[in-house]
């Protein structure tokens, strides 16, 4: 099977959109990721999958903690910015939560310490032990088949 077929098939799984942030040597770094999930309730663990070729990969390897921001439907511009798809300079204001950089006005912010990481093919799975969470009542940004969307809640 070729790479294109595999990527197309995987894009048919609707996901939320997150931005992973960390700080290394006083500099904040972030990247958009939709490869995110919860792993365990006891202990409370989440995982993000980051390509070895991504700049964020090295930053996460150097850091002992990171944050995951689940974006709201109004934050598509932040998703494209942290995915490297916006070429113009954009000033991003970070808030702090448990000493980690986070994006404000998000659906959820999760802060965690690195619990483990595992190489899986051309990615590393970074497992974080959750230390705290911020929640808001906003609709999440969705991603399906290479396009952004919104979530319709069935009643």
Automatic annotation (TrEMBL):
InterPro entries assigned: Flavin_Rdtase-like_dom, NADH-dep_flavin_reductase, Split_barrel_FMN-bd
Keyword 4Fe-4S annotated? no
Keyword field: Oxidoreductase
Q: Its Gene Ontology biological processes?
A: pyrimidine nucleobase catabolic process
Range of residues in the leader sequence = none
Indicate whether Oxidoreductase appears among the record's keywords: yes
State any single GO MF term: FMN binding
Domain Flavin reductase like positions = 10-150
> Which ranges form a coiled coil?
none
Q: In its UniProt entry, what is this protein called?
A: Flavin reductase
Q: What is the lineage of its organism?
A: Bacteria, Bacillati, Bacillota, Bacilli, Bacillales
